[in-house]
Specification:
alpha+beta, Nuclear Transport Factor 2, Chain: A, 46% strand
Length: 161
């Protein structure tokens, strides 16, 4: 599931592909942070799946697998817009490219604050495992699994509408 290749670049991995693959995850994070529907949606294929269940289970929460770009965007932005401020930082990207398909592993630190009470927050350190597909010159996420490594704060207050 996670990319553990022992080198960053092979003969089949171009620098352009590497940048565009990682950019899909940047669009995912910044689209949420700015509540920018178009930017957020641009990270996903139309039939994308996002599994936040493993992360939610870490603090006793539940999250069904979200299926479809519009569903993912509607649910996440609907939960956060006007209620939760977020900031995502993406680090340690590792990727494996196989033609028009790629796998990406990255660490993502996501800070969440209630807009009405910024003292209520949840800081999550998550490990992402993404599968992506080439779409012309850009790459899109078709599957994303989010595991939580640790957290501070109150995730229940953030992720419960």
């Amino acid at each position: 599931m996670y990319v553990t290749d022992t080198c960053a670049r092979t003969a089949t991995t171009s620098l352009t592909d590497r940048v565009e693959i990682i950019d899909a995850l940047y669009r995912f994070g910044l689209g949420q942070d700015l509540k920018n529907r178009d930017l957020f949606a641009s990270a996903f294929t139309t039939d994308a799946e996002l599994d936040f269940g493993p992360a939610a289970a870490r603090w006793g929460g539940q999250s069904p697998v979200m299926k479809g770009r519009d569903t993912i965007v509607d649910l996440i932005l609907g939960l956060f817009t006007g209620r939760v401020e977020t900031s995502h930082q993406v680090t340690n990207p590792r990727l494996h490219l196989d033609g028009d398909h790629a796998r990406l592993t990255a660490m993502v630190e996501a800070q969440h604050l209630l807009s009405a009470d910024p003292t209520t927050h949840a800081l999550l350190k998550n490990l992402y495992a993404a599968e992506l597909t080439r779409d012309g010159s850009r790459w899109l996420i078709n599957r994303l699994r989010i595991d939580n490594l640790w957290y501070t704060g109150d995730p229940h207050a953030i992720f419960t509408p």
